[in-house]
Design brief:
Blueprint (H helix, E strand, L loop, with lengths): L2 E7 L9 H4 L4 E10 L2 E9 L16 E10 L2 E8 L6 H7 L3 E8 L2 E8 L2 H12 L6 E7 L1 E3 L2 E5 L1 H12 L11 H8 L3 H21 L3
Antiparallel strand pairs: 1-7, 1-8, 2-3, 2-6, 3-5, 4-5, 6-7, 9-10
Helix pairs in contact: 4-6, 5-6
């Protein structure tokens, strides 16, 4: 059964975390991971930086062959990194275990990743054989994809919990009766994690209720 997992690792355990040494107030959010010849190319957004030359703030790191600024929107910067073929870190471990990255958000407090695998065994392989012996991970959640009220919406328990609570607290009302911060506090998670759960939950509901019927 398809299963999703949330886990955290220390800031320095992922190469892009080097930016927090010079810019501790920034947030880095992975945009997407795609195959690119023999490299994995992550696009990511950097927020909360005041410098115009943010590209220079990413110090050279073993495993990263190139980092470049692609675009900027306001105070958000879209960047791209290319990885050495020999790099044997988190991305390689996930790829070898056939685990898909759904989201990754980093701050100076650490990285929070949400991943999905076709089976729990694949997640166990990632944890024990490929990665955890080198850098222990802190698991926040493991959930199988579940139907909602008989429909194949494939929401996780945490996504359903976040959507229902946001609805009940009036987050979707106009004007809003609850803030993202208040709901995240009630769930005991970060605002970034809550935003990711709501976004992915919305995407699944739209795909199941609108796209499939069109």
């Amino acid at each position: 059964m398809a299963t999703e997992m949330e886990f955290t690792i220390p800031p320095a355990a992922f190469p892009l975390g080097s930016v927090f040494e010079n810019l501790p107030g920034v947030t880095v959010e992975l945009e997407r991971l795609i195959p690119h010849e023999t490299l994995i190319v992550p696009y990511f957004w950097v927020r909360g930086a005041e410098t115009e030359d943010i590209e220079a703030e990413f110090d050279p790191h073993a495993g990263v062959s190139d980092i470049r600024l692609v675009d900027s929107v306001g105070d958000e910067y879209l960047m791209r990194a290319e990885w050495d073929e020999e790099y044997n870190g988190l991305l390689s471990a996930l790829s070898e275990a056939e685990v898909t990255v759904l989201s990754g958000v980093g701050t100076d407090d650490g990285w929070r990743f949400e991943v999905r695998a076709d089976t729990r065994e694949a997640l166990a392989t990632f944890r024990t054989a490929h990665y955890e012996p080198h850098v222990p991970i802190d698991i926040a959640m493991i959930n199988a994809l579940l139907p909602t009220r008989g429909e194949s919406y494939a929401l996780t328990e945490t996504q359903r919990e976040a959507l229902v609570l946001a609805y009940e607290r009036g987050y979707f009302d106009s004007p809003r009766e609850a803030s993202l911060e208040a709901i995240a506090d009630e769930l005991g998670i970060t605002q970034q994690s809550l935003s990711s759960r709501l976004r992915r939950g919305h995407r699944r509901l739209i795909r199941a209720t609108l796209i499939s019927s069109s």
